Amino acid sequence: MQDHQSQPLNDFIEYPHDEMLNRANEFLTTSQRRHSIRSFSDRPVPKNIIEACIKAAGTAPSGANHQPWHFVAINSSDVKKQIRDAAEKLERSFYEGRAGEEWLDALKPLGTDANKPYLEHAPWLIAVFSQKKGGVSTDDKNTNYYVHESVGLATGFLIQALHRSGLATLTHTPKPMSFLTDICGRDRDNERPYMLLIAGYPSDDATIPAHALDKKSIDEIATFI
């Protein structure tokens, strides 16, 4: 490696093999309990829990450590209503034919439609934005690298952090998502909406589509060589 400033790795913890396997299996079991739901309770969730989860997302690896993401955590009823109105307008055109027959057929087992009441009902929406330029300092104007990959990693961290804290989540990606830029007051020239996460407690009548429980086997998703 080239010369660079560094410090010793002093916070890595090595576990005995049996404990490694137990911890891996415990995480697998925890991950298997993570489900995308569409019926949320309006029970409030403290801001500090959302803050801690976003901090965890901010530890994700990124191209050149530029951390090309911004998270807008939305608790305001007025803003949530604006987002729902804009999203449902797009979703109506989507389900009325813009998506195409093949895509709509793929969605049928999930039971989704243009109605998105959870966008208003859930206590928190988190709009994830990617950034074309930036750097380690928020004042930097450097080109960001591997932006899509970096923001995807951070979003995955955020979903798991929310799940492990005891909250349910749903990913929502209306197309186009440019309305989020305006509603959230973000920089249209530099930032692009990446995903909208819904977070909160499940409602008492929350369900999971049977189709969503059908996961591929290890032989189907991995090859060991």
TrEMBL record:
CDD domains for the chain: iodotyrosine_dehalogenase
Keywords tagged on the record: Flavoprotein, FMN, Oxidoreductase
Residues covered by the Nitroreductase domain: 33-201
InterPro entries noted in UniProt: Nitroreductase, Nitroreductase-like, Nitroreductase/BluB
Molecular function terms, GO-annotated: oxidoreductase activity
Alphabetical list of Gene3D superfamilies matching this protein: NADH Oxidase (3.40.109.10)
PANTHER family per the UniProt record, alphabetical: IODOTYROSINE DEIODINASE 1, NADPH NITROREDUCTASE
Protein name listed in UniProt: Nitroreductase
